[in-house]
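Sanity check

After download, print the first record. It should look like this:
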Amino acid sequence: MAVAPPTLRQLEHIAHIYHMELSDEDLRAYQALMADPLGSYARLDQLPEPSPRQVYARSGGYRPDPAENPLNAWYWRCSIRGADGGLLAGKRIAIKDVIGVAGIPMMDGSSVLEGYIPDADATVVTRILDEGGEIAGKAVCEHLCFSGGSHTSDTGPVQNPRRHGYMAGGSSSGSAALVAAGEVDMALGGDNGGSLRIPAAWCGVVGHKPTWGLVPCTGGFQLEMTLDHFGPIAHSAEDAALLLDVIAGTDGFDPRQPPDAPTPNCVAQLTDRCDGVRVGVVEEGFGWPGASESDVDELVRQAAESLASLGATVDVVSVPLHRDGIHIWNAIAIEGATALMARGNGVGTNWKGHYSTGLLDFFGRSKVARADDFAPTVKFAILLGEYMQDSYQGRYYAKAQNLAHRLRDAYDVALAQFDVLVMPTVPMKATPIPPADASIKVIVGRALDMVINTCPFDVTGHPAMSVPVGDSEGLPVGLMLVGRHWEDAMILRVAHAFEKSR
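Expected structure tokens:
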């Protein structure tokens, strides 16, 4: 692809954007100076680009019809078999459709990206196949993953397996629904504000958001670099621990991962007891005005107290700044996603890692041609994010990132007294799916009204997971366990012991 030199009028337009007054003579001088660096771009076109390896044979698969897809949770069905043996031998796994699988269409819930086919497997996909897992298909996710509800995907809403007409949660909506319905053994989800834990809670399965940087995001569509997480959704804590053990660890391509990041070895640390574990019940996670439901709070408190019978000590702890986590997250998610997703075409700049240039090319062109097809949630984020950047020069994004350190410190103070923190994953039970003709206010509001307990831990990067603790009015309730950085095994251990006691 040849790089065309800029015209004088194009340079004049750019100068205007950056408030520069340049004469035509100035512009011609700068235009002439660009010949040499544009020669470098021409040379880049001639050099072969490295890409992650693809080892295992596959066919294209197919888009399932409604009779085969009653929850509307599958985007694409396929069968990609990995190694003959390994930790995941015999396991069927669904991949959230924000994660690249070579040769398989990837839509990320949005018609703007429909038609894109990755040419390489994401690192987490390769690791699953290397351990003998079978990729059973791509699970529906919400429109560019910007929703905690399951009503924004352009393929239609994902149904809650426990009650049709109700939210499955998002944005990993299809992943949780498929696991809960027993159609797969495990699934991969993503989490930027609760997108893995919310659907796990509302569908009644286990969802684990790892420590930030433990699992590489190489090969996925990025939303906000400081919030991005990939992790497991499964029927049990043991299966979640198994999948996490497989996908965790540095890959050399994701700069979010420190080179000395520890490997979790979670399965080996599972026990049926919580002897010596100190559990802190975070008061600010309960009783949210206008959001918390009393039956949810009560079920979670009862579950936390039951850990004492397994050898844990259980006490109450206060983390006042938790109530401000949503405000810190809002600025980071809205402005950060606008910069990376809208301006940066889901890839961005200024980080060392693997860049999916095919994804960048496809989305960059399609978002211009099909901007009107963005969901209201994405339009809302772009409009507000650009306004805040243009009017306040990124000051509030920067302040939120600075306050993120205070928020992390606040949880770390509590985690110096306790080994795990506990609160409801979502303050309310699953809510009805809005009607197809719902207003913009309803669509956007129902996408973000449930993230208040989950989103702070995307900001701070602490490991956090949702564990089902029972039902109320026929709908599941999830308890969230939060641990110290790199101590994912601890919260999986507590979750496993709780499950066994039930």
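If your output differs, re-run the checksum step. Summary of this record's structure: Residues 8-46 form one domain.
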